[in-house]
């Protein structure tokens, strides 16, 4: 009989804890914000030209340039500000990388539009070929702009 009474008391005490809960207030750590605001940065447009105006907008953008061109400028428009990421620009000729530029950018480092000037490896200007300029944010490709030198 004593065993039944102890068991009955244990059951009642357990039920009491289940009904009333623990004496300590529950605290749940809020989830960390794992989404970087730069995740949504996009480049909405990219153009190549040989000249830009005072506002940084390409003058006579084109996709074909003459052999011997001395400078080709890639201009791109970013949808939002970038902070503390690597912005990389790669220029390929016939699928071979001929130029790479990387900069860790802060909020004030970029303009919109922003641009980069490509200069040929030889003094005679750009050689004939199929070129592609690719802009990356860290390892994500944001835009690819192709052009031809004939």
From TrEMBL:
It comes from the Bacteria. Keywords: Lipoprotein, Signal. Residues 1-25 form the signal peptide. This is Lipoprotein, putative. It comes from Dehalococcoides mccartyi (strain ATCC BAA-2266 / KCTC 15142 / 195).
């Amino acid at each position: 009989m004593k065993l039944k009474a102890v068991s009955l008391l244990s059951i009642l005490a357990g039920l009491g804890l289940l009904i009333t809960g623990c004496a300590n207030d529950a605290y749940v750590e809020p989830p960390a914000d794992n989404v970087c605001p730069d995740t949504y940065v996009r480049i909405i447009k990219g153009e190549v030209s040989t000249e830009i105006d005072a506002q940084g907008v390409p003058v006579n953008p084109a996709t074909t340039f003459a052999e011997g061109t001395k400078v080709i400028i890639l201009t791109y428009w970013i949808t939002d500000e970038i902070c503390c990421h690597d912005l990389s620009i790669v220029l390929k000729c016939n699928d071979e990388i001929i130029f790479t530029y990387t900069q860790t950018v802060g909020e004030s480092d970029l303009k919109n539009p922003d641009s980069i000037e490509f200069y040929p490896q030889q003094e005679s200007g750009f050689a004939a070929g199929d070129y592609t300029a690719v802009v990356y944010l860290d390892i994500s490709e944001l835009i690819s702009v192709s052009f031809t030198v004939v």
